[in-house]
Amino acid sequence: MTEGDIREEILDILESIAPDEDLTQIDDGVNFRDQLELDSMDFLDIVMELRKRHRIQIPEDDYVQLASMKSTVTFLEPLMKDIERV
Amino acid sequence: MIRSASDDQRIVITGVGLTAPNGDNLADYRQGLLEGRSGVDTYHVRYVGDTLAGECHFDELKHQKRKDLRRGTRAGSVGIYCANETVADSGIDWSTIDTSRVGVYVGVTEHGNVETENEINEIKAFDFDTRVWSHHHNPRTVANNPAGEITLNMGITGPHYTIGAACAAGNAGLIQGAQMLRLDECDMAIAGGVSESIRTFGIFAGFASQGALANNANPARASRPFDRDRNGIVVSEGGCLFMLERLSDASRRDANIYGELVGYAMTSDASDFVLPNPEQQARCMRLALDRAGLSAEDIDIVSTHATATTSGDIQECKAIRRVFGNSRGTLINNTKSYIGHAMGAAGSLELAGNLPAFHDGVCHPTINVDNLDPECALTGLVINEPREKESVETILNNSFGMLGINSAVIIRKF
User: Residues B327, B380: contact at Cβ < 8 Å?
Assistant: First the structure.
C-alpha cells in the first residue's frame, strides 16, 4: 500500500467509527480529536480494525502515533507497504 | 394498604413511551390491538434460520446518532427511544428539571447474550483469535447497560439499574420505580422493561429444544394463547417505559394521569425451573389485591401472561380460576396473541395496551383462538372480538417468568 492507499483505508475505517462526521474536510496535520468527536474507545476501534483487516498489531505504547492522519499514515507506512490494496 | 397512603406515597403513571412490533406509540399500538393487527412476521436469525418473531420498527435515529447506535446495544436503543418518548408524553419540561432526581429502572429478561453471540461469531472468522474480541464487549454486556445507555443519552444523573426478572421484568421494573419514589430516592421514575431478545439465536434455539417455539405458515396467526392448536412462543423485542411520579408531584404540575398503581406483588414458586405453579401465581394476585384493598370482583380486566405454551396457559388459567372464579364481571384478555412474547418488555407493554380501556371502555380480545382449549375456557375470557364494558376502573396485569418468578400489578383509573 502506498501512503495514499493507507490514507484511504484510514478514512474508510473512520467512516464506520464516526458515521455522523463529515470526513471530506479532514486536515491531515491536525489531531483527529481536535476536528472529530473521537474518544479513547474510538481509537481502540482504529487499532482493532487494522488488526482485523490487515493483521497489524500496534503496541499500546504506539497508540499515540495515531493522533492525526499524517502521523498515522507515517507510522503505518512501513507496516503496510507490503500489503496489497484489496 | 397502598390505598390508604398519603399523596406523596401514591404513585401514578404520567407518561408512556413504547415500541411494540405493531406500534411505536400508545395510540397506534392501542389501535392495532382493537383492530386485531398482529406484529409478528417472518424472521431470520443466524444458525436457527427462518423463523417467526415480533420485530420493532421505531425510528432509531429519532433520539440517537448513528455512532451511538454502533457503540451501544439494541436494548439500549429500545430503552432510549422509550425513555425519550415517555418524557415527551408526560409533558415534563426536561430542560428545567433536576436530572439527579430522575431514576431509571429497566426490567430485562436477559442481557448480554446478543452481544456475546455477536463477538463469538466475529472471532470465529479469525479462527477464534481473542485478540479481535471487541473492547466494546464489556460496556455492552454489563447488566445495567440498557438503563445506563438511557442515562448517557438523556443526561440523567440519578440512580439507574436493570432489574433481572425473567419474563416478569416489565412489571418488576414498574414496581421498582414505585418503591424508589416512595423511598424518596427520586422524584421521577422512568420504569418498565425492554427486550432485544430476537437478536440472539440462543433464545430461539432454546425454546425450540424445549418444544416451545411457535411456527405457523401465517405469521400473524402464530401466537395463539388458549387455543388448542397453539404450538409455542413467538419471541419478540420491544420496550415500554412509564413515567412514574408521586401523586403529590403530578397533581402540582397538573399532569395527565393514566392511572394509579394501587397494588402490586411479587412471589416465587420455589418449585421448578420452568413449570409455573398456579398456587403461587394465585397467591401473587391475591397479595396484590389485598395490598390494594380490593377484591377480585373489583377488577375489570385481567391482562394475562399466557405465552401459548400448553402448560403455561393452563397453569395460569388454574390460578386465575382460583382468584377470579366467582368474579362474573371481570374480563380477561391476552396481548401476546398480537405481539408475541416481548420478554423483558412483555409486562409493561401488555399493561400499556390495556390502559386506554379506562377511557374507551373496551377490553381488547385475545386473538387467534379458533379452537379454545377447554382447560382455558375462563369465564370472562374475551376472544377474537373486542368487548365493551360499561366502565373500566381497574386492571390487574400478570407477568410470570422462569425460575418461578411471579408478578401482578393493579392500576386504577384516576
Answer: yes
B270 shares its domain with B353: yes
Fold (topology level) of A3-24+33-80: 1.10.1200
Residues B275 and B194 in one domain: no
Model pLDDT for residues B13-44, shown as the tens digit of each residue: 999 999 999 999 999 999 999 999 999 999 99
The domain boundary residue, chosen from B234, B252, B270: B252
- Taking a contact as any Cβ pair under 8 Å apart, which residues of chain B between 61 and 90 contact chain A? 65-67, 70-71
**Do B211 and B160 share a structural domain?**
yes
d(CA A49, CA A43): 10
Question: What CATH number has the domain bearing residue B348?
Answer: 3.40.47.10
Cell readout for B49 is 434460520
Please indicate if any CB of chain B lies within 8 Å of the CB of A11.
Answer: no
Q: Does B3 contact chain A (CB < 8 Å)?
A: no
Structural domain count, chain B: 2
What is this model's ipTM? Answer: 0.95
Q: A20-73: per-residue pLDDT in tens?
A: 999 999 999 999 999 999 999 999 999 999 999 999 999 999 999 999 999 999
Nearest to B131 among A19, A37, A51 (CB): A51
Nearest CB among B66, B131, B135 relative to A41 is that of B135
Q: Is residue B170 domain-shared with residue B281, that is, in the same domain?
A: no
d(Cα B182, Cα B201) in Å, to the nearest integer? 39
For chain A, the structural domain boundaries read: 3-24+33-80
> Domain boundary at B252, B272, B307, which?
B252
Q: Which of A20, A5, A18, A19 is nearest to A53 (CA)?
A: A5
Asked whether residue B86 carries a pLDDT value surpassing 90, the answer given is: yes
Give the other-Cβ count within 10 Å of B55's Cβ.
17
What letter would DSSP give residue B235? B
The reply to whether B3 falls in a domain is no
Is the Cβ–Cβ distance between B242 and B173 less than 8 Å? no
SS3 for B185? coil
Q: How many helices (H) and strands (E) does chain A have?
A: 4, 0
* Structural domain that includes position B240: 8-252
Nearest to B179 by CA among B343, B350, B2: B2
Give the list of residues 6+ apart from residue B92 with CB closer than 8 angstroms, or none: B14, B15, B188, B243, B253, B255
Averaged pLDDT score across all residues of chain B: 97
Report how far residue B159's alpha carbon sits from residue B137's, in angstroms, rounded to the nearest whole number: 23
Option in B65, B70, B135 nearest A48 (CB): B135
Residue bearing cell 384493598:
B293
